[in-house]
């Protein structure tokens, strides 16, 4: 049985609390984890990913803020030994020391403007591109920025679910 199918079978068979804990490593919203876990069993990865996308899209803003609280600032090295911290370090591997100060300044401006951490799917992006996106998004109004945050959260969640199901560490 391929790794993804065996991981999915184990996820489907796990007690609800364990499944929700695994899902919170992908998206730290309690509502997200409960909704996706309640939809088990999933026949394939595509079904799980579709359910996760629907659950992420249905999150109330306070649930999005709960998920954001678990994300480190872009450019900061996440602490901790858990799966989510390791994934964050990997996702932000393109940020070099030369841009950390500029990103820290941008993060402060963003948080002052929007009241929460700046979220971007950093996988595959270099520090300069991350900084450019941050600066661009500082020009968004509240509604447009919330839509951007939801989109980035969905991308990150999808990537992490694929990793959780054995599609790469």
TrEMBL record:
GO biological process, one term: purine nucleobase metabolic process
EC class (word): lyase
InterPro entries reported in the protein's UniProt record: OHCU_decarboxylase, OHCU_decarboxylase-2, OHCU_decarboxylase_sf
Membrane-spanning intervals of the chain: none
Residue ranges annotated for the Oxo-4-hydroxy-4-carboxy-5-ureidoimidazoline decarboxylase domain, each copy included: 12-161
NADP in keyword set: no
Pathway as given in its UniProt record: Purine metabolism; urate degradation; (S)-allantoin from urate: step 3/3
GO MF term list: 2-oxo-4-hydroxy-4-carboxy-5-ureidoimidazoline decarboxylase activity
Pfam family, one: OHCU_decarbox
UniProt keyword annotations, A-Z: Decarboxylase, Lyase, Purine metabolism
Gene3D superfamilies documented for this protein: Oxo-4-hydroxy-4-carboxy-5-ureidoimidazoline decarboxylase
Listed EC numbers: 4.1.1.97
Catalytic activity: 5-hydroxy-2-oxo-4-ureido-2,5-dihydro-1H-imidazole-5-carboxylate + H(+) = (S)-allantoin + CO2
Protein name: 2-oxo-4-hydroxy-4-carboxy-5-ureidoimidazoline decarboxylase
Lineage of the organism: Bacteria, Bacillati, Actinomycetota, Actinomycetes, Streptosporangiales
